[in-house]
Amino acid sequence: MSNYKDTYELYQSTFDEVHASDELIQRIKNKNTKHIKKKRIKHISTVAACLAAVIIITVIIDSFSVKGNSFVLKANAAEIGGESFVEIAKVAPVSGETGSIIEGDKRTQIYNCVIPFAIKCDGRNIKSIKYTVENAVFLFPYTSYLSGYREKHPNEAIASDKITEKTESNNKIESYIEKDKQYSSYTVSFDDQINTEFKDYTEMQSFPIQLLTRISSDENISQEAENAYEDIFSMSPKTETEKGKSLSDEEYINEFMNDIKIIYNEMYSKVMITAEVNYEDGSSDTATLRFSCINADQQNGITIGARIDSLK
Amino acid sequence: MFVDSSEFNRIVEKYTDVVFRSALSFCKSKSDAEDVTQNAFIKLLKSEVNFENDDHIRKWLIRIVINECKSLWRSPWRKKVISFSDLDYEPEYIESKKSEIFIEVMKLPKKYSSVLHLYYYEGYKCGEIASVLGISESNVQTRLMRARKMLKNKLGEAWI
């Protein structure tokens, strides 16, 4: 017998337990702060200084700009700052599951990881933005151009010539994908032309793209990562077995996840994404995104974070 | 009433969950839903609409969410992108029944889950749903019927 009077009550009761995160709520409230400050600045008659907005986790590039130019980078709705790594994605840890694939043999183990990467710029007076990525590749899954290529080359991440697509809002997006060497180091760059209706750029859509990274045990990796690979290969974490103790299941899993964290950190620490923002007045700003594996545990999977490494 | 800066935080506290729930049932992705939710409130902050009451604000926000999601759906990028995860968000339910319902509703095609949510959660009539989605009322009724049937097939007695 149902505890609910009718379908309405059942459905409402189910969705009443869906809650937005506190982080989202705070982020939205922070928009109010920015909005108030924008209104006040409009009343200032002659100003030579930069915009003076305050946002909790985001470094606004205003301080490096003139005449009110600014941009804020976001990845997967998280605003990226310069102080600490901000969580942008979670993936499941092992082969065959969400976002992460392990391949290879006993000699060589290769980790491939795909995370959603809706990179977005909010800003003022932006004319164009160019993103370049090193040691990773942007994926545009299943675009009409690429799907045929994927069928013929199922083992390749992506390798295609220049593709051009138009969005509904008449933004022209061109992506250039140059294949440098097999799989692990593509250079991808694409320009987005802003719809002139969105003057302050805050309504530009995110790019629904993914970021693919890869690491192989036979590449030039740190000693720590080599040790982690060896641990996983042998399926017996060295730290405890060397001491002669047998591990409980939980201890074993913790050791395994620690090795995974080391490998993923090695993989992601090599990835760099540069956003070059060109403003209407001809000036430009550059921000470099760096990545890290913030955490890896059985319960939450692998947490990938990003931060702005440098502002120019 | 105009939503000025002093009123804004109160509205955010009151309606973020509501807006997020709608966005999630339409977008099926937590990151998209958060983006859409944030954008809806940014538009509220910039709007110069004279609202009659809080309920008017709620309906206005839901309409903005729908428009934002429509833009998302129309984008050729969005149509062709697949998500690596089937679901990237699930509340921690005590009742397993609710968990099953949530998962199955989220698995429904967007055209069904959006109608379902507007009907059962927001309390919209079929005519109102037709108006905001830009489809005919008979289409709304068909989608509702199909959504209910799909849920009934999946959930059995768990779905009334």
Order of helices and strands of chain B: HHHHHHHH
Biggest sheet details of chain B: none
Sheet having the most strands of chain A: 8 strands, antiparallel
Helix-strand category of chain B:
mainly alpha
Return Rg of chain A in Å: 23 Å
User: Which architecture of the largest domain in chain B would the CATH scheme give at its second level?
Assistant: Orthogonal Bundle
What is the CA-atom radius of gyration of chain B, in angstroms?
16 Å
Distance between the termini of chain A: 65 Å
The total number of structural domains of chain B is: 2
Estimated helix fraction of chain B: over 70%
Question: What is the terminal-to-terminal distance of chain B?
Answer: 40 Å
CATH class wording of the largest domain in chain B = Mainly Alpha
Into which percent range does the helicity of residues of chain A fall? 10-25%
Continuous helix count of chain B? 8
Can you walk me through this structure?
The complex is a heterodimer of chains A (312) and B (160). By secondary structure, chain A is of the alpha+beta class. Chain A has one domain. In chain A, 25% of the residues lie in helices and 35% in strands. Chain A has six helices and 15 strands. Chain A has an eight-stranded antiparallel β-sheet. Mean pLDDT of chain A is 62; it is low at 43-66, 94-99, 141-150, 156-208 and 236-244. The radius of gyration of chain B is 16 Å and the shape is globular. Residues 77-86 of chain B have low confidence and may be disordered. Chain B contains eight helices and no strands. The chains are: A alpha+beta (312), B mainly alpha (160). At the A-B interface, α1 and α2 of A face α1, α2, α3, α4 and α5 of B.
